[in-house]
User: What shape does this take?
Amino acid sequence: MNQPRIPQSLAARGRSFLARFAREARGNIAIMAALTVPVVAGGFGLGSEVVSWYATERSLQAAADSAAIAAATNSGADFDVEAKAVALKYGYSHGVKNVTVAALASQACPSGGSNCYKVTITKTVPVLLAQMVAYRGDTTLGGSAAKRITASAVSVQANAPREYCVVALASSGYSPGIRTNGGPKADMRGCSVMSNTSATCNGHNLDADNGDAHGTNDGCGNVQHSQVPEIGDRYAALASNIPRDDCGNFYPKAPQKKNDSQLPEENILSGFYVWGSNKSVCGDVQLEADTQIQSDTNGAVLYLRNGKLDLNGFKLSTVNGSYLTIVFTGTAGAYEHMPTGGGMLDITAPTRGKWSGVSIYQDPALTQGVDISDAGNSPTWNITGLVYLPHANVKFSGAVNKSSNGFSCFVLVVDNLLINGTGSILARDQCRQAGLTMPTNPVLSRGKLVS
Assistant: This one.
């Protein structure tokens, strides 16, 4: 079948129309492109600058957070210097490259009060490509459009519980509660010390992690704090575990001279003993040879009423898996209530029960005959647990290590303490395993963010 033919004139007109349409379409596209390219470029410019602003804001916020924590941790007159120094570590120096760093104290806290620290860091940046979509920022920089980026943080100095190896309760009012004599070679690394009055260390800071004092701390501790809240006596209540006095006012004393009366047999220790939960002795106890104590898993308690423990140059120890608490009690009078006589104490406190963690305990009712002049040296102390001497003036001149069969834990609580010579605590870090809750005090510590 033959196809119909299109007239030549009509075909020519059709070709002419298509040519004109093509020429006009290219022109329209060019016009549309000319109109949309700036919009697209501006959009990309704004997007890239927004990303840059966001990254800067994130960086500023990290710097402000750290600077606010530093200001609160410092909490001194130069808190603002501390804050600006921390901001500089993030690359933000006050007054340089359009940066301002402002640190303020006594600011309102979100939860109430006005003891917070606020740090605000601001950086002004020029607006560039975003101007193509008519964005002019919110400030000017050298007469040109600019944007101010700001981050703020609020922090407060927080309380944190601090554990102590040495506490001077200073209930007598003695000050300084902790002091050193000359330049002792003390080693209290891993320990902190606390005095309820002042603390004075001449020539050596004890190498304690923290030295705290309710009054003024003058040189004690690697980190030193004054005006710390007083610490309470959490161990005084243990005196309720002491049985009543059934000695009938008979408290024999160890012989001091050749013609003095000898102690009763029950007051003399020598050799190996298996003790139950309690053993009470009236008057002094004296060793006549090295002595070992075996107890059950709950430990044994030796109550000395109106008497001292005279080691007489020998060693008193607990065997492996056994525990001992030595309690000095009685009346405040012409009696001594402490370990004496050279030798060695090598004892492990019980890890459970009423006397958990306590190795030596002076009844807080005792106020006389309680002082110790050569603690840790005569006798030698290898002790795991608490030595509680709440009204004693103690001269600490030895090195305390853990007991042979116990965990590494030693805590000393006294009225006041003179550290002379070595004065080292080598038993530390394992008091929780040893069954002892250490003396703690909520003290101001590092700052923490609150907003």
